[in-house]
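USER: Study each token:
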Amino acid sequence: MSGEEIIDITRAMLWTTFITAMPVLTVALVVGLAIGLFQALTSVQELTLTFVPKLAAVAITFWITMGFMTDAVVTLWRDRLIPLIAGG
């Protein structure tokens, strides 16, 4: 396996990781900012107020995008990694 192939596979794996993590991280960021704004405006500094809604939003987002994430990872394995392993 050449260095170019290793870099290409690494790039594909990092891109797949980025694509699969982005929906969950984006929702966590948006919900965190909204809760932080709410806490700043109301002066409510309850720790569970930040944790529970963010956890629920991340869990719901993960549940909704689970099919997309699975497709992306399976496609990477089926199209890039398994042929490389079988051919090598």
Observations:
- The radius of gyration is 19 Å.
- Residues 56 and 74 are 26 Å apart (CA to CA).
- The mean pLDDT is 92.
